[in-house]
Amino acid sequence: MPLPDIKHDILPIENDIVRTIFCIRTLFYVSASCRNRCYEPLDVDSASCRCDSQCVETHSCCFDYQDICLLPTQSWECTALRCGERRLSGSRCHCSEDCMNAGDCCSNYNSICEGEFSQWVQDECVDMSTAKCPAR
């Protein structure tokens, strides 16, 4: 029996395995996140984690429940996870795509979600290591 040709016989199988693993991991990540799922009714047919207030009691919260669903009600800032979020009624400010039109973006929306930096951040810092008294 001849040995398999590695280029043609084995690599296609490995590529299929890698593609399958990637698809499964992507599917798991999407269903295991609270992104755009906060406080949705429980889907009993779904085996995914939960994003409602009951999940804490049942220990079934998604890994990002705190950051995606609770943090917006306690913080005035965007995080990378919040950019493009669906509006939550209890949020202090928003990181949704329409927050500029609504006028309720978090203070750091432009820098975190749009990648813009204000001029003062780019200015050089003043050396404060030695005390300098004003001239008399």
UniProtKB/TrEMBL annotation:
Protein's UniProt keywords contain Cell inner membrane: no
Classification via InterPro entries: SMB_chordata (IPR020436), Somatomedin_B-like_dom_sf (IPR036024), Somatomedin_B_dom (IPR001212)
Gene3D superfamilies found in the cross-reference section: 4.10.410.20
One GO CC term, this protein: extracellular region
PROSITE patterns on file: SMB_1, SMB_2
Keyword annotations of the record: Disulfide bond, Glycoprotein, Hydrolase, Metal-binding, Repeat, Secreted
Domain SMB residue range list: 30-73, 74-118
UniProt GO BP: immune response
Coiled coil: none
Subcellular location: Secreted
Main location: secreted
Pfam families recorded: Somatomedin_B
Keyword match Metal-binding: yes
Any one GO molecular-function label of the UniProt entry: polysaccharide binding
Name used for this protein in its record: SMB domain-containing protein
Classification of source organism: Eukaryota, Metazoa, Chordata, Craniata, Vertebrata
